[in-house]
Amino acid sequence: MSxxxxxxQAVPPGAMDPEPRSDEAAHSASPSPxxxxxxxxxxxxxxxxxxxxxxxxxxxxxLIVAAIVGLSLWYLVQPQPLIIQGEADATRIDIAARVDxxxxxxxxxxxxxxxxxxxxxxxxxxxxxxxxxxxEAGLAVASxxxxxxxxxxxxxxxxxxxxxxxxxxxxxxxxQHTYDRVKELAGSGNAPLQRLDExxxxxxVAQRSLDQAKAALLAAVNGYTAEERGIxxxxxxxxxxxxxxxxxxVDELVVKAPIASQVYQIGAELGEYVSPGVPLLSLVDxxxxxxxxxxxxxxxxxxxxxxxxxxxxxxxxxxxxxxEIKVIATKGEYAGWRATRATGDFDLRTFExxxxxxxxxxxxxxxxxxxxxxxxxxP
Length: 379
Known about the structure:
By secondary structure, the chain is an alpha+beta fold. It has nine helices and twelve strands. It has helices at residues 2-10, 13-16, 22-29, 35-40, 56-77, 126-151, 155-188, 193-222, 226-251, and strands at 82-96, 101-105, 113-114, 119-124, 254-256, 261-266, 273-274, 279-296, 308-313, 319-330, 350-357, 369-374.
């Protein structure tokens, strides 16, 4: 009995069914998972097989990737604003020497803030100072001569000239009397004719001497002529002009700041010999700081003086600054032009755009970079 039951249990169920169902045949046709696969999936060999996971997460990931790609493509085809870069600049004053000499004093250093009229340099030139003293002495001489002429002839000179006239008149009287006697004697034959000739000449000389003395007395009484006074005045003016010229050069020995500014560069040291035209130092006016951009004319179209635009300064923590355009000037032909192509395009010039901050920015320094977004010809 037990033997028959064991044989009956050993027969597989499908052996007793001559025509299995289609679904059972499909199950029997598919390979059953091996023990290693079941062990890898964490199931025992006798446990039922779990259904595979759903495909929903894969679809979601695919949609996300497609959305990212689509947004990226859309962003790339959108027109991007042009970033233009400029630079802060300020009024710069180069101080040069107008005279030669050695640097005697230089009380300022680079980076110092100076006020208007403050001493920057002192140049030593002893020869120039000596020339000034010589010119001052020349002026003193010319002024004395003018004063002498304007004062007229001294009374002592007039008296001397009168005495000379009286002496000449007495000599003429004596010569006349001698001539008369010699002539009478020569007429009677008691004097030679040679003697008569001598006294005749002496009479003429005495007459000329009297005329000369009278002319000198008249000149002393009348004084100097208008022409002589004019010459004296001209000599004084000439001497004064010479003093002014040399004094102007002497004044250049002391170099002072023309405006309140900051020392930017130093070009000469103590004891160094400088020549006229050689830069001594450079000043920068921090109260006159502007922002400069160089733009091609196709980018600068639509801009006009008075426009405001926003820009940022990286050196100030990307600070935003509102600036106003005050200058639009073309630059030289050598700067930033694009060559003509075969299609007939014309050359594009470069324009300098100078804008000033609407509100003062004390931290803004020359040389700092600034940038702005340029869209459609408008910042």
